[in-house]
Write a structure and sequence with these properties.
Blueprint (H helix, E strand, L loop, with lengths): L1 E5 L5 H14 L6 H13 L4 E7 L2 E13 L4 E11 L8 H15 L5 E3 L6 H9 L18
Parallel strand pairs: 4-5
Antiparallel strand pairs: 1-2, 2-3, 3-4
Helix pairs in contact: 1-2
Length: about 150
Amino acid sequence: MVHIKQAGIEDIETIIPLFTAYRTFYKVESDPAQLRSYLYERLTNNQCVIFLAMLNETPVGFTQLYPGFSSLSLKNTWILYDLFVVPEARRSAIGQQLMDSAKQMAEESGACEIMLQTATNNVSAQGLYEKLGYERDNDFYCYYLELTA
């Protein structure tokens, strides 16, 4: 049975292998110490919400959202930045359950929307998002300016 819970600081060590696999999917290397520090800072400063999917006692997926704001609607928004389910647990509605938890939290917080982006070749994720009522934006382009830190 899948259980979805909002993760806290106590779950960081459980999340790290999932986060590493997620970053590997996008061909980004991970340093566990750096991930631990990043997650600790986000969670302790209430800068994100992470939902963790557990199948029995095994972590099988997560989604991470960041709060945002809409100047046009004068309301809060949520940016769903990460969604990952381990390959062996895909096609079992875990991604949908994580997305449902995110939607419920966003609604309860009074947000006006959830925004997300996905890779143009991530067709399975696009199918899930569209099945859940998300609409592809054809009115705006996304621009990025990479900064060196």
